[in-house]
User: Which sequence fits this backbone?
């Protein structure tokens, strides 16, 4: 890439060392944490100016990429309507509008009737007027269908304000609350439960009860969670009979329940928390159905009477499968759906109930491709004989199917339309297995354009990874990805340890004191994909965000020679300083993922891979590091400090760019067109570095 005549910003250094366990952490850029400082803002703006200067020669390419991506989007569209309590709900988008419009029509029968008048519930475009950012958090309609509780964030800091809209008039009521998380209606449609977060740590630690018309100051504290590892949530069973109050950490959970008819009552404990045991709850015909890992990491389903919910009364309904982790369990009046993973791929098994709680016949829904994503779609109704699920793959656009439980037949309701000449037969996908340094087999999902891919090719290779929190990397369709594929880029997704592709054991094998497995798995994937002919060794680009940004920093420190270009989004790179600051959002809860550096052994291990602390003098690949000023999960100063320090150590002249969205949070721009422009910017960087512009 052509270098800019503007010199990169050189941040001033102000040593602020931290000594712990007899070791000193050097940090010359802690002053960047002061968001209110004009000096900090000026530095970030200088970084943006430098990045835009370096990227100026790609402006035409960015415009071309944006136009290509937009050409594959049906801008005016409508989602598949789903039925709930006498209404059909759906979402509309219109050409030129950044945000969706949430709508509904009265249900006059079992099928959607377009002749019924459309009611606009929430036009997010109107909410966004005059705002640089707008995100809607919760959206839930009262049981009587007359009120909408919704929450909004206009900064990107994920600090949501609760609103209640009268759907008969379209006017918002004066009832509001700040820093709100989960929301649940009681059966009377006049009582609302909601969680709030601590202003500093952003941990959801209170549950409040609100009655319509009351001032927020009168809201009653239902529960306060004092353990800093745990966050609170509220919800409801699918049949609407019980309110649920859940407390969960990364490894442990507990749940209480209360009749939705008596929201002023006391919540009853189901089973007190036990370290490293998780469970989730639903209800059917007087029985609690509980998915739990109490006897093994792959989870099972048990039942208990409402009157006797404790562990001593649990009876096994679906046993643990040692080969297929039970990822989710959906309960309906006459059937249930078990969502499992086999060899990292999702499965859906529909089982009918016989007499009482006994299980009847089961059938697994079949999927046609070797690499795909599948899972439940919108299924709010409890009394139904149909189950909706979503399906997509690296080459097949997102689709919504409806499965008839009685006939065993799936019907396609809608597949995402991809205009602009898209033909799925031009693209191929496959599952590749690579061998980790300790012999473990790691799956990698690969997609390419058939007419440009050849074994032992010189194609550019783009490898994406995450590998944290037990999160399975989704394998879905992307219209923006076509711009890379159509230029001959081979794209791969590494399902490395630390993720959840093979259940909790896969997660456990890549966290805490074995976190380095995540990094070595990713390096092995890059090396072996090149060896297998999926790309050229001098044309490998990599990408990751958040905890995946930690992955980027760690693997680049270890093998800077392996990668040509790096795209790192909101990267968690300052591991030690962040995890030593318990006042920051998420820190204490994250001890169960990374370890507690106040422990000497954990400190030593975490320091051994922390990207910021392991930068050293030498050549580095081209890097574009992106963040947002209002990020509440990975603070902007982490990537800003990382880039500043790397500039003092990097010995070659490859680009090192930092781009800060000054009006957004962890997820970047909120408007769909703005977000697409961000992707075009990223791809222009990658394609220029890989030598692929046409």
Assistant:
């Amino acid at each position: 890439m052509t270098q800019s005549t503007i010199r990169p910003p050189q941040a001033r250094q102000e040593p602020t060392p931290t000594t712990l366990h007899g070791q000193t952490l050097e940090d010359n850029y802690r002053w960047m944490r002061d968001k209110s400082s004009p000096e900090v803002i000026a530095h970030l703006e200088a970084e943006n100016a430098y990045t835009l200067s370096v990227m100026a020669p790609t402006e035409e390419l960015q415009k071309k990429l944006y136009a290509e991506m937009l050409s594959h989007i049906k801008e005016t569209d409508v989602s598949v309507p789903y039925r709930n309590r006498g209404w059909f709900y759906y979402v509309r988008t219109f050409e030129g509008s950044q945000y969706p419009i949430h709508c509904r029509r009265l249900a006059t029968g079992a099928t959607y009737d377009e002749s019924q008048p459309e009611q606009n519930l929430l036009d997010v475009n109107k909410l966004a007027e005059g705002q640089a950012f707008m995100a809607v958090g919760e959206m839930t309609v009262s049981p009587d269908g007359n009120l909408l509780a919704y929450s909004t964030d206009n900064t990107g800091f994920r600090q949501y304000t609760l609103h209640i809209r009268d759907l008969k008039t379209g006017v918002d009521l004066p009832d509001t609350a700040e820093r709100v998380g989960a929301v649940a209606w009681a059966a009377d449609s006049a009582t609302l439960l909601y969680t709030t977060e601590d202003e500093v740590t952003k941990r959801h630690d209170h549950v409040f009860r609100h009655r319509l018309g009351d001032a927020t100051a009168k809201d009653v504290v239902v529960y306060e969670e004092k353990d800093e590892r745990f966050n609170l949530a509220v919800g409801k069973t699918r049949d609407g009979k019980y309110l649920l109050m859940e407390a969960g950490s990364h490894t442990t959970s507990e749940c209480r329940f209360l009749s939705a008819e008596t929201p002023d009552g006391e919540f009853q404990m189901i089973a007190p928390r036990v370290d490293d045991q998780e469970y989730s709850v639903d209800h059917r015909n007087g029985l609690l159905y509980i998915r739990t890992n109490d006897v093994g990491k792959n989870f099972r389903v048990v039942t208990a009477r409402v009157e006797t919910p404790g562990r001593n009364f649990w009876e096994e309904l679906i046993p643990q499968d040692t080969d297929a982790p039970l990822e989710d369990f959906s309960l309906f009046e006459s059937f249930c759906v078990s969502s499992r993973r086999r060899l990292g791929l999702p499965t859906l098994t529909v089982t009918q109930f016989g007499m009482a709680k006994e299980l009847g016949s089961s059938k697994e829904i079949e999927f046609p491709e070797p690499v795909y994503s599948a899972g439940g779609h919108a299924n709010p109704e409890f009394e139904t004989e149909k189950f909706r699920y979503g399906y997509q793959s690296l080459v097949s656009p997102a689709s919504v199917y409806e499965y008839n439980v009685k006939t065993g037949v799936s019907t396609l309701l809608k597949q995402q339309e991809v205009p602009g000449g898209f033909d799925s037969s031009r693209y191929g996908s496959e599952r590749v297995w690579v061998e980790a340094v300790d012999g473990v087999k790691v799956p990698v999902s690969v997609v390419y354009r058939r007419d440009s891919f050849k074994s032992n090719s010189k194609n550019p290779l783009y490898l994406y990874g995450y590998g944290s929190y037990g999160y399975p990397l989704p394998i879905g369709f992307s219209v923006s990805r076509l711009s890379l594929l159509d230029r001959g880029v081979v794209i791969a997704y590494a399902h490395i340890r630390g993720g959840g592709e093979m259940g909790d054991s896969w997660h456990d094998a890549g966290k805490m004191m074995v976190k380095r497995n995540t990094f070595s798995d990713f390096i092995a994937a890059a090396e072996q994909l090149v060896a297998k002919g999926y790309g050229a060794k001098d044309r490998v680009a990599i990408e990751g965000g958040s905890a995946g940004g930690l992955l980027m920093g760690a693997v680049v420190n270890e093998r800077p020679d392996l990668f040509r270009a790096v795209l790192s989004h909101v990267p968690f790179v300052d591991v030690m300083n962040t995890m030593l600051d318990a006042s920051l959002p998420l820190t204490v809860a994250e001890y169960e993922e990374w370890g507690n550096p106040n422990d000497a052994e954990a400190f030593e291990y975490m320091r051994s891979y922390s990207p910021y602390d392991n930068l050293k003098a030498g050549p580095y690949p081209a890097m574009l590091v992106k963040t947002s000023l209002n990020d509440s999960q990975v603070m902007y100063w982490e990537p800003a400090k990382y880039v500043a320090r790397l500039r003092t150590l990097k010995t070659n002249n490859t680009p090192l760019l930092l781009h800060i969205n000054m009006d957004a949070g962890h997820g970047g721009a909120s408007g769909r067109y703005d977000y697409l422009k961000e992707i075009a910017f990223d791809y222009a960087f990658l394609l220029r570095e890989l030598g692929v512009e046409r």
User: Anything to note?
Assistant: The longest strand covers residues 345-353.
